[in-house]
């Protein structure tokens, strides 16, 4: 009787208003060699809740009498979602984190990249590698605050329907913006309960603190990937972020904006694959 091969676990976290499709090209490339878990961050209104969601998805433990949900979302991909825990759940997060038995790889895009850094600081013993895409370790900036005020006003009036084309010009490289299918995909990811999801995630991201001085504590290998023309997380910020870690690699993707995992999917997949095979 042959022993079955246990695949390493690779957990993906999405950006604001995104679902698993933001990572779809990379999941397609990697799922034959890795146990893929996608963590849906849309139900959560706090950083604590999002961090807890990672442990819920990975550990499969139980939170009191409520089971951790682990469901199938396409071939070879598990989708993890936990309870919407607020800022008062730090003890629960610590308890679940301590129960995670096997080290795993954590990858985060944009908002998910920030949550990945928070997770790495709290539970660095759980991670074998960390992948960060389109993110800095900085706190909530005044420019972001102003943009969020605009979205919050619309969301509170139930008039927020996702990212409009005009705003997508800030998120995409000019060449990528001409790709109508890509624009529609990004807008479609945000459609379901757009106003409520946006309000929850706005509330969570307003808690964002500057992590940069603490990142030297993360000892696992780290890969930082950024689009050269990213207007949301400028490439200089991402290069600086990579320099904050003890063991990091930095990959700059030319002719790409913020949604680099979709704009230049093959190059991002190649960079991740090379990093994981080191």
Description:
- The longest helix is centred in the middle third of the chain and has 15 residues, at 142-156.
- Strands 3-4-2-1-5-6-7-8 form an 8-stranded mixed beta sheet, with helices on both faces.
- It has 12 helices and 8 strands.
- The model is unreliable at 61-75 and 82-99 (pLDDT under 50).
- It has 278 residues and is α/β, with parallel strands linked by helices.
- The two termini are 31 Å apart.
Q: What's the tally of helices?
A: 12
Q: Decide which structural class fits the backbone.
A: alpha/beta
Beta-strand percent range = 15-25%
Radius of gyration: 18 Å
Order of helices and strands: EHEHEEHEHEHHHHHEHEHH
Helicity level, as a percent range?
40-55%
| Distance from first to last alpha carbon | 31 Å
Spans of at least 5 consecutive residues whose pLDDT stays below 50 are 61-75, 82-99
Quick one: overall form? globular
Main sheet makeup: 8 strands, mixed
Number of strands: 8
User: How much is the average pLDDT?
Assistant: 84
Arrangement of strands in the largest sheet: 3-4-2-1-5-6-7-8
Keywords for this entry:
single chain, 278 residues, alpha/beta, eight-stranded mixed sheet, 12 helices, 8 strands, 41% helix
């Amino acid at each position: 009787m042959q022993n079955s091969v246990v695949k390493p676990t690779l957990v993906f976290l999405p950006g604001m208003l995104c679902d698993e499709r933001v990572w779809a090209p990379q999941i397609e490339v990697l799922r034959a060699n890795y146990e893929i878990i996608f963590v849906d961050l849309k139900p959560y209104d706090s950083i604590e809740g999002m961090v807890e969601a990672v442990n819920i998805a990975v550990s499969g433990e139980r939170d009191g009498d409520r089971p951790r949900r682990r469901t199938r979302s396409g071939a070879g991909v598990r989708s993890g979602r936990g309870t919407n825990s607020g800022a008062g759940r730090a003890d629960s997060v610590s308890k679940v984190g301590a129960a995670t038995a096997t080290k795993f790889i954590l990858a985060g895009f944009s908002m998910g990249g920030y949550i990945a850094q928070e997770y790495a600081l709290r539970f660095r013993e759980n991670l074998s590698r960390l992948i960060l895409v389109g993110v800095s370790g900085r706190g909530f900036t005044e420019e972001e605050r102003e943009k969020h005020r605009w979205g919050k006003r619309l969301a509170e009036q139930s008039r927020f329907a996702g990212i409009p084309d005009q705003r997508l010009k800030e998120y995409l490289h000019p060449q990528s913006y001409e790709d109508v299918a890509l624009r529609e995909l990004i807008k479609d990811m945000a459609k379901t309960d757009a106003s409520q999801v946006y309000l929850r995630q706005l509330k969570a991201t307003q808690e964002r603190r500057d992590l940069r001085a603490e990142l030297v504590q993360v000892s696992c290998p780290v890969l930082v990937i950024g689009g050269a023309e990213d207007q949301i997380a400028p490439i200089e910020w991402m290069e600086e972020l990579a320099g904050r870690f003890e063991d990091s690699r930095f990959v700059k993707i030319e002719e790409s904006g913020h949604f680099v995992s979709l704009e230049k999917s093959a190059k991002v997949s190649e960079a991740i694959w090379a990093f994981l095979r080191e």
